[in-house]
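LAB NOTEBOOK - FOLDING QUEUE
OPERATOR: T.R.
BATCH SIZE: 2
PURPOSE: Compare the predicted structure-token outputs for two unrelated chains run back to back under identical settings.
PRIORITY: normal
REVIEWER: second-year student, initials M.K.

ITEM 1
FIELD SEQUENCE / FIELD STRUCTURE:
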Amino acid sequence: MPIFTYMLIFVPLAVIAEYVLHAPPTVIFLFSALSLIPLAAFMGEATEELTIHTGPRIGGLIQATLGNAAELIIATVALKNHQIELVKASVTGSIIGNVLLVLGLSLFLGGLKHGPQRFDRTLTGLAASMMLLAVIGLIVPTLFEVLQQIAHPGTPVQVFHTETDDPQLIVISLGVAGVLMGIYVLSMIHLLTGGGEESPVHVGEESPVHAGEESHAYAAGTREPVEHTAKWDVKTAVGVLAGVTIAIVFMSEFLVDTVDPVAQSLGIRPLFLGVIIVPIVGNVAENAVAIVAARKNNLDLTMSIAFGSSMQVVLFVTPLLVFASLLFGQTMTLFFNLFEVAALGLSVMLATSISLDGESNWLEGATLIALWMIVGLGFFFID
């Protein structure tokens, strides 16, 4: 990953901009955002190396747990700073970014090069079904709270601002989060007991992925690497993982602290930054793998990344954030604003309808990209 190695220069630049130069928030935001791209890439690389030493089953579990670690760290930092709306926006943006932008670009570029492409529709259908379940898990608390507000005429109906202390909503959110986490655990059991042996591999950028390569595992965003020789020993991999994690925490602090000032100075909404910019920053390396795989005519891998990463966000990352919020004295509920809910539902429905026939073309990719642009335009103007 040579390009990501060069981008590590933005880590010291962000530190200098913050502590030495006291640079404008826009500069700090830019440097910290750019620094998170190589850090997330190296976190993925270190995780891949660990999976080689631990074996495919434990490796798959490690990949499942750390697959969206960079996003989780960014969201946790925002949660600690009580920026719950930003956390929810990043969750929404991560899901629609994967199933619309990443999948759309992959199908579009792959289709232009190879024409119609085929993939395993059975596994994609299972993934799509789990995604629909997970999105419904986010919709139900939202509908409950909106209906509660409508049922009480003296209570203003909030469709865009979702911070509330409704005790019933808190209980529902914790319950739904528990159910989603339970489904995630079941998917891990499915992986560890061999249930995913015939499914596509989800690997890092340096893995030798080729069209027609035998596939190995798929379960809620898990990745099992194809066999190749480890470049790092266990101590090196763990050391890189620890160092990168610490760096991501600091860069995330810089990023989160500057979101509001940057949004104000540029005349855009913080919600837009949370939905569009922040998820892209944390997922560039993995998204690049999906697009490259499609160009190599390996749509099984592309589907595994696009749907798998989204599934992990909604089944593992989001419930974990709900429970983690209890530690920060403010419960994050699963009450999302209505536009976010609509965007999530429509995105998953379109991606599912395109993926169920086991065949794709460049026009279907363009359709997904078009919806991402339409949704992004809406988020740009929501206050």
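ITEM 2
FIELD SEQUENCE / FIELD STRUCTURE:
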Amino acid sequence: MAEILTQTGFDKLLLTLDADREQAGAKYESLRVRLIKFFEWRNCERAEELTDAVFDRVIKKVAMGEQIENIAAYAATVAQFIFKEDCRRRERLFESIEDVPEAQIAAQANAFAEESETEDERMNCLEKCLAEFSGENRRLVIAYYDTDERTMIATRKRLADEMKISLNILRIRVCRLKAKLEDCTRDCCRKI
């Protein structure tokens, strides 16, 4: 149902933007760029993900049949709310970070050090690339993948709930972070 709702909602959003599908697509892209800039100007590291969250909410409203005359103005208002929510979430996350035991982080680093030399080089690249991420993004990637198969779904749902985002947005964020991490690690390994 969610997939149908999203596609139907997106189609309705495009129709609201313009009756001509091509013009609607251009207006959508223009609005997307403006929203990304809105978040970038406010020093948000995750401007694209926050923009996705704006569109997620706007599409849900449109899909429910709500008539929105000025989509750009409505999206800008939603973006302001999402920005405030993100600021509060970052503050809470920063406070909870201080509770993470250093021994746990050190134990994980020691476990990696016991790998073979090739594996060590790859792990060094991985750690170097992870270190380039913001603390928040680094913890998100680790929390997302640090689970076994039995508890994976529940863990990821809990993580999404803690961040007050949908599971789909969480997957998109982690997927983007993973792609950046893989590219960085691959480039680092080539240099060795």
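REVIEWER COMMENT (ITEM 2): The longest helix spans residues 71-97.
FOLLOW-UP: none requested
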